[in-house]
Amino acid sequence: MSAADAPAGPHGERPQTLLVLGARGDLTKRLLLPGLGSLVAASGLTGPHLVGSDRGEGSDEEWRALVARAFSEGDASGAAVDAVVRDTRYVAADAAGADDLRGLLASCGGRLTLYFALPPAVTVEACRTLARIGVPEGTRLVLEKPFGTDAASATALNELLHSFVPEDHVTGRGVGRDAGRAHRTSPSTSDTASSAPRPRCAPPWTRHCANTA
Questions:
Q1: How would you label 8-21 residue by residue, b for 16+ Cβ within 10 Å and e otherwise?
Q2: pLDDT tens digit sequence for 12-29
Q3: What's phi and psi for 51, nearest 5 deg?
């Protein structure tokens, strides 16, 4: 069942979809998925509906096995964790291709969070494409630091992101074991540094951030 088909929550909230671009990469397997599994296990959240996408062909079964393995390595277990694994799916797509991205976005219902687990140059190309084709209203973006290679490229990327989503719908976080820490981006030279940012809130796919956004 996709997020588009899922019923509303007990308080009428729309289902949430977390779309991971670069789903088969090292960042996703080692950091994002274990952190997400721990978050879901600790909170008992229903969802998010997890969609993985990358350029290579793959099956839903292979992707579910990868997600289950990453969750297990992060010691995540429970009914909510099992539900994420059961309902997740994989879509082969070019993250910078307009037609592929249109298809991906159309297949993701509810409130959408886009997580860029991509090399910096590919992230920029993907964002340029998204700026051209548009994203669903309310879409949130999550990017890993560092942004760009210097202050100028960080500022340019920030301006690009804010051309198609509001500033408070963009979050960035330093690479680390805890995938549950995020904060808003800003076009400062610190965005190109490797130091971990101060945490601002839990990831935007959690109920807490959804209610405070």
A1: ebeeeebbbbbbbb
A2: 455 789 999 999 999 999
A3: -125, 125
Q: How would you classify the pairing of strands 111-116 and 140-144?
A: parallel
Q: What is the pLDDT of residues 61-105, one digit of tens each?
A: 999 999 999 999 999 999 999 999 999 999 999 999 999 999 999
Helix, strand or coil for residue 137? coil
Q: Can you give the pTM of this predicted structure?
A: 0.78
Expressed in percent and rounded to 5, the helix, strand and coil fractions of the chain are 40, 15, 40
CA dihedral 36, 41, 44, 49 (to 10 degrees): 40
Strand, coil or helix: what is 78? Answer: coil
Cβ(8)–Cβ(109) under 8 Å? no
* CB contact at 8 A, 213 and 113: no
Q: And the tokens for 130? A: 């998204």
Omega of the bond leading into 146 within 30 degrees of 0 (cis):
yes
DSSP 96: T
Better-predicted residue by pLDDT, 114 or 187: 114
